[in-house]
């Protein structure tokens, strides 16, 4: 086997492995892997990565003489590689913003502005067939694709997105000191600073395999974080699960004091069984998702942890001082109002209501189970009062 044949074989195996890896990951992604937005951009990242690999392999085959493309087909291979690489990395950056809950990304105007550099790059690539700014064909008898003057625009766009995400994550951790999985965030930022020089200086390094490996690493990183999310998150509602809530409560109690007491809320949906019995379990699931949405909105305003504790029972854990002048029952009223809005928005045949109890802890020696028990006792009493007032689910749900 000559050297040329060895390179072709190695390159083929290399690309087939990455394609197989990407397709396998894509097939493993389910709705329980995380928030809908995260999954959507991750799937986009994988699809464009596979497109990149196929185009890259064909381009290499042409360079090695395995297949023969005409000039236009060669240009399409080159342009497809750059467009697919750009969109794949953009999707990965968007995943990072969603996964780490960087607030600006949820603003629709920001999303449009954020996409402008990518759109500009895509337009430049399509225009290169006419102006040769990104790629052009040599004048040889058997023309090859050459890099144009603006070829490095791709790397400037990558740099903008990489450093924007790094800046936002660092700002959220150290300036605003908002609740975030710091270890995960720092790994993400560290990965950006590792991968950025590799991607940005690919052309300078003259290493053909750098881009596929960079994207491979990004997809692997994303898949691992989604798996972690799957372990920590309730699949139906997207809220934290019971284990995460318990660990957070335990940690918060250990850090509590008279000035920064922990307040635990136990909440459940009134007449939830009636929803299941009358409209079916799918509608019951829908009700739980709506409850989860309302809780997330309260959590964003109050900077607290919310979780599904089990069945139709949910919990809120917050620090006393974050409530300001609010009374403890005001949090439950706020949640009730938010839940009512969500029910109307979804055009339900019923309005969901809640009962809730709470307990306060200012001693770091208290056991989490004791605090849960105290909050649950209040919930039970309030639930009993509610059932005395509304003896039938028909009265409250219609």
Structural descriptors:
398 residues, alpha+beta, Rhopdopsin 7-helix transmembrane proteins, Alpha-Beta Plaits, 2 domains, two-stranded antiparallel ribbon, 9% strand
Short description:
The protein has helices at about 5-30, 35-65, 70-100, 110-115, 115-130, 155-175, 180-200, 200-205, 210-230, 240-255, 270-280, 280-300, 330-345, 370-390, 395; strands at about 135, 145, 260-270, 305-310, 315-320, 355-360.
Describe the structure.
A hairpin with a 7-residue loop joins strand 1 and strand 2. Helix content is 66%, strand content 9%. A 4-stranded antiparallel beta sheet has the order 4-5-3-6, sandwiched between helices. A two-stranded antiparallel ribbon has the order 1-2. The protein has 2 domains: 3-232, Up-down Bundle (Rhopdopsin 7-helix transmembrane proteins), CATH 1.20.1070; 242-397, 2-Layer Sandwich (Alpha-Beta Plaits). The chain is of the alpha+beta class and 398 residues long.
- CATH architecture assignment name of the largest domain: Up-down Bundle
The residue fraction in helices comes out at 55-70%
The CATH topology annotation of the largest domain reads as Rhopdopsin 7-helix transmembrane proteins
H/E order of the elements?
HHHHHEEHHHHHEHHEEHEHH
**Secondary structure tally: strands:** 6
- CATH class value of the largest domain: Mainly Alpha
Q: Approximately what portion of the residues adopt beta-strand conformation?
A: 5-15%
CATH superfamily of the largest domain: Rhodopsin 7-helix transmembrane proteins
The total count of helices amounts to 15
Biggest sheet architecture: 4 strands, antiparallel
The low-confidence parts are none
Write out the strand line-up for the largest beta sheet, numbering strands in chain order. Answer: 4-5-3-6
Return the domain count: 2
* Mean pLDDT reading: 82
Radius of gyration: 27 Å
Q: How would you sum up the global shape?
A: elongated
The N- and C-terminal alpha carbons lie at a distance of 78 Å
Structural class of the secondary elements? alpha+beta
